[in-house]
Amino acid sequence: MREVAVVAFAQTRHTGHDEGLSEPEMLLPVLGEVKERTGLARFGFTCSGSCDYLAGAPFSFVSALDAVGAWPPISESHVEMDAAWALHEAWVRLQHGDVDTALVYGFGKSSLGDLREIMTLQLDPYYLAPLGLDQVSFAALQASALGADEARLREIVRRSRAAGRANPCALDLPDPGEEEYEVAPLRPSDIAPITDGAAAVVLAAGDLARELAERPAWISGIAHRIEPHYLGMRDLARSASAADAARAAGAGKGHLDVAELHAQFSHEEIILADALGLSPDTVVNPSGGPLAANPVMATGLIRIGEAARRVMDGTATRVLGHAAAGPCLQQNLVAVMEA
Amino acid sequence: MGERCAVIGVGQTRYQTRRRDVSIAGLVREAALRALDDAGLTFGDIDAVVLGKAPDLFEGVMMPEAYLADALGAAGKPVTRVHTAGSVGGSTALVGASLIQSGVHERVLVVAFEKQSESNATWALSTHLPFTASLVVGAGGYFAPHIREYIRRSGAPDHIGTLVAVKDRRNALKNPYAHLRIPGITRELVEATPMLWEPIRYLETCPSSDGACAMVLAAEHKVTGTPAWVHGAAMRSEPIFRAGRDMVDPRGGRDCAADVYRQAGVTDPRREIDVAEVYVPFSWYEPMWLENLGFAGAGEGWKLTEAGATALDGDIPWNASGGVLSANPIGASGLIRFAEAAQQVRGLAGEHQVDGARRALGHAYGGGAQFFAMWMVGSDRP
């Protein structure tokens, strides 16, 4: 495979409420930041991830293109998925060898609707959606299947929120206090907060990556896998697709200093750490992770960006970025990056 | 670019107003199994699945790739979901081809679908963000002014759109998958139908269809049967609100075609391409795209249509399958163009086969005529 690296990453200062910005307005400063950092105004390929249902209108990616400056016309595509999958598509495109740079971005404003209800529309419309189980109920089923120790969940939340408070882009959330169950065994703080935000990554190949960044975060492996949709077909306490993706990405071939996991519920971190084979000394979600900021459709890309950032700033040499989609971690993507 | 890629299997469903006999999963599986059967493969031979469809609001299922993973035999594999508006079917093929051309995978299943009977696409396309006025209804309301501007610029006579409507529906009678079948269709019949969006009459617009299309793409060393080789592939996008862009003759379309022609070594598309499957959802888009894709000079496209050059027996048949005007499961419509182009160079197009077709163009566009996906396929290994 051709050498490809993350050479720039930027994200908004995410908010827990609507700031009145349109998606292109939210995106524009982030795109400006990665362009300034790389000195690139044009890219060989551009790919984004977003979801129409967050805006409640078709084609939310269309107006986003107005923030990119797509003139003259650009080679561009879009996934209706978390932008981590857009990054994968861009990495694949760079393997062709005819273009050397790619811009990847994702954005989402979950403040505008009822995310729990919206995510229900992702379920099989004939057999699952009519049951009326929402996203949190599904997650709680998984947490129950795991038999997660509530003290351990609470510690994950406490650590994530503390890290989030130290991250200027994440939300400022207090240590978890006494809470009633939202859906047992999950409490409100076990659930990723409603967040608006956007993020962008620039990928570059070979020598150009070395020119554009002092310490590029080289992608040594990237892969994603899906598993059956129906919960009855899966062992909910495990994530077979995360484990498969990690194997395909070569996650276990060396020590991981940092892992940024797309865990939107505290118990998912336990399942993922196990599936990815993380050792106890791998630092998990030093950014605070999704429990401290969850701009849906950008959250997975931010995991890759946050992990890459630690290679680029010299504080880590080998890191993992993870993204997930679908009910109960149905789909998982793993990117391993090295100095 | 990159590794060679070929189409080795194509599967389509019959396109019709309502497929009450299948669920969404049943619909995509039908196309997928036909493509696998054509390739002599099973789901077990597939490395990755790429799924495309237009806005999720059309069926009311958000990110349906999660639900459709089971029906597409995708468990344990990578699944990518593409959405680039009307061009999505074409983009889906290109994303699949890219997985082969990159050397990442060896056999990829690409599937695109729409089950428009689940909702009303015109109204799904007419929702707007809160507090913004909707000035148009549906895609026809958006594109009619572009067509009027084309007529003004080119001086094309009024009947050109009618000619395309008749030609494509006559071609559809030779395509067993086509949705609209109007035996004995004439100009008079088209002209007698109601005006929907001046100058687009009812029979000059595409239908709303249920349907799915699938292809199996393979790397060179996995090619079996009769392949259609990818000779060129490109995408282009331009911003919808850029004041200076020409919506009648978009630069994105011109640049995308130029990129594909360069890769395929084509310098004179009208003479060097044997057949084209081009996204024509409203009849007038045939002359408009004839110019945009370089088959005719500015203002000259309608003359090719009028002279019959784009008919099945013309020198450059366009939409031998009947095109989008005869079947339009929106998210699949672009992939159907790409697949029909492949079937032509494989010599497997059936009754609407263009004799001796060796090089074919597949084209799709979407959004406000701002997203373009195209590929050139050929019977010869590039």
From TrEMBL, chain A:
Family matches, as InterPro entries: Thiolase-like (IPR016039)
Coiled-coil boundaries: none
GO molecular function: acyltransferase activity
Top-level taxon in the UniProt lineage: Bacteria
NCBIfam families assigned to the protein according to its UniProt record, in alphabetical order: PRK07937.1
Name under which the protein is recorded: Lipid-transfer protein
Lineage, uppermost ranks: Bacteria, Bacillati, Actinomycetota, Actinomycetes, Streptosporangiales
From TrEMBL, chain B:
Any one GO molecular function term: acyltransferase activity, transferring groups other than amino-acyl groups
Domain annotation Thiolase C-terminal: ranges: 245-369
InterPro entries assigned to the protein according to its UniProt record, in alphabetical order: Thiolase, Thiolase-like, Thiolase_C_2
Gene3D superfamilies documented for this protein: 3.40.47.10
Record protein name field: Acetyl-CoA acetyltransferase
Gene: atoB_1
